[in-house]
Amino acid sequence: MTKTICLALTGASGMPYGLRLLDCLLAAGSSVQLLYSQAAQVVARQEMAVDLPSRPSEAKAALLARLPAANPARLAVYGREEWFAPVASGSNPPDAMIICPCSMGTLAAIAQGLADNLIERAADVVLREGRKLVLVPRETPFSAIHLENMLKLSQMGAVILPAAPGFYHQPQTIDDLVDFVVARILNLLNIPQDMLPRWGEHHRIGED
Ligand SMILES: Cc1cc2nc3c(=O)[nH]c(=O)nc-3n(C[C@H](O)[C@H](O)[C@H](O)COP(=O)(O)O)c2cc1C
Predict the structure, then answer these.
(1) Which of 7, 10, 43, 116 to mutate to test the pocket of ligand 1 (most atoms within 8 A of CB)?
(2) Please, what's the largest Cα pairwise distance for the chain?
(3) 54-68: buried (b, 16+ CB within 10 Å) or exposed (e) per residue?
(4) What is the pLDDT of residue 68?
(5) Which parts of 126-201 are beta strand (E)?
(6) Calpha distance 50→193 (Å, rounded)
(7) What are the pLDDT digits (tens) for 73-100?
(8) Measured in angstroms, how far is the CA atom of residue 4 from the centroid of ligand 1?
(9) Rounded to whole angstroms, what are the CA distances from 42 to 11, 38, 75, 111?
């Protein structure tokens, strides 16, 4: 069955994780509802020289131009105040929502239930409807405020999956590090991936 995944890009460092995740979700045949903040537009330009136009239809075209194999019908892009988007209502929640990368600002707003833009509202809906919410924060060091907000959200059922790649798979490239984090997200969604073997599933790392 097709999974409907809401993917939100916010203004934390780590845009390569978010855009690689988008590629993988579409390649896996998921339907993706994409949301992005103003700060995400800045970070996408800074980190990847990717232009994410403010108009959602133009952002969709720009994203699909990077992914020629993707089915355009599987990607819907919504603006920050598009309150009639499906994700704004508990009557039509996605199967899961991933915020990747997740800024400390958006994380704090969700922890407080602000629902002041579509990303915060969609997360609010997913939490109260008991759907999976995965937050991929990136900040260092964490302050007590960050840690308290993450604990609060974890206790509400959200998964906090920090953008903290491991090194035991002997990464050779930045793409390998990005794929580590993206593979862990896909595992949480039960979407098959072959970027990272599950622990103990095959030969020991380093052996042929
Ligand atoms: C290049 C760049 C990198 C940033 N990196 C981070 C980061 O790693 N973590 C974070 O919480 N905020 C980071 N910020 C700051 C956020 O973008 C800022 O707090 C913004 O208000 C978040 O808004 P949003 O949650 O609506 O995306 C960064 C900003 C820029 C421009």
Answers:
(1) 43
(2) 52
(3) eebeebbeebbeeee
(4) 87
(5) 132-137, 159-160
(6) 25
(7) 999 999 999 999 999 999 999 999 999 9
(8) 27
(9) 7, 7, 22, 24
Return the residue matching tokens 């509400």: 156
> Can you point out the beta strands (E) in 110-195?
132-137, 159-160
What is the rounded average pLDDT of the residues 5-31? 98
- In the block, tokens 């959602």 appear at 56
- Residue 150 tokens read as 């993450």
The per-residue b/e assignment along 128-151, b for 16 or more CB within 10 angstroms, e otherwise, is: eeebbbbbbbbbeeeeeebeebbe
pLDDT digit string, tens, across residues 163-187: 999 999 999 999 999 999 999 999 9
Q: How far is the CA of 208 from the centre of ligand 1 (A)?
A: 41
CA-nearest residue for atom 18, ligand 1, is 11
The rounded Å distance from CA 8 to ligand 1 centre is 14
pTM above 0.85, yes or no: yes
Nearest CA to ligand 1 atom 26: 37
Q: What is the 3-state secondary structure (H, E, C) of 24-75?
A: HHHHCCCEEEEEECHHHHHHHHHHHCCCCCCCHHHHHHHHHHHCCCCCHHHE
Nearest CA to ligand 1 atom 28: 12
Q: What is the pLDDT of residue 86?
A: 97
Q: Which residues line ligand 1 at a C-beta cut-off of 6 Å?
A: 10-13, 37, 39-40, 42-43, 46, 103-106, 138-139
